[in-house]
What does this fold into?
Amino acid sequence: MEVVIQANTDAATELVARIVAREVQTNPRAVLGLATGRTMETVYARLVQMHRSEGLDFSACRTFNLDEYVGLAGTDRHSYRHYMDQHLFRQVNIDLRNTHLPDGAAADMRSECEKYERLIAEAGGIGLQLLGIGHSGHIGFNEPPSPPGSRTRVVALAAATIRQNTPIFGGAEKMPRRAITMGVGTILECRRCILLATGDDKAEIIAKALKGPLTSMIPASALQLHPDCLAVLDEAAAACLKELQKV
Ligand code: F6R
It folds into this structure.
C-alpha cells in the first residue's frame, strides 16, 4: 500500500479531493465508491467548490456508498442518504437516479444486500473507492471480525463505533445498533482505493491497519492485499506509523 503523509488535514483532504476530481475528469462515466463520516465532509466540500468554480461535471457519474444504518429511511436526518444529499448530491449536477446507497429500511435485508452487489456488478464495478477508518478498525461498517472475503451484509456495530458516532445522534440509546455494509471482499474488488485518515485519534488504528498483521480483527488491514490502494494521512494520523519506522 502506498502511504502519503501530508503536513495537515487541509492538505490531506485537498489531495484526496483532487484525485477524485481527476477520476471524474478523465472518465465522465466514473463509478465512484463513497464513504460518509466527519473525515469526508471536507472532501465533499472541496468537490462542491470545484464543481462551482471549475465546472467539475458529475452529470454522468454513478456512485455507490459503502453503508447505511439499518432502520433508517433515506428521509431520516441521521441516514447516510441524507448526509450524501446534503454534503454532495444536491450541491452538484449528479443525476440522483445514479446515486446508490443500501436501503436501511428495506423489508427484506437479504435481498437488499444481493441487489446491491448486483447493481455494482451491472455498473461494471467500482473504479475508485473512498474509505475512512473507524476506531474499531472498520472500513465501511465491517466491524471486527470481518474476513477479507465478506460481502454486502447486515452487521452489528462495535462498541467503539457506537461511542464514536453517538455524539451525532445525541445519545447512545438513539443510535442504531446494526448497519448494512459492503463487505471487505466487495471493497477489495474496487479497482482503486483511497483511505483517508486525519487526526490523532486515528493514529493507533492506522499503524495497526497499515503495518500490523493481516487480521479480520482489524478489517482495514485487508487493504494491504489490494493491488492499488493509497493511504492519505495527515501528520497526526501518521504519528504511530512514524514511531514504528523509527524502531
Ligand atoms: C461510513 C464509513 C466509515 C467511516 C469511519 C470514519 O460510511 O465508511 O467507515 O469512514 O467510521 O468515520 P469518521 O470520518 O467520522 O471518523
In short: The chain is about 35% helix and 15% strand.
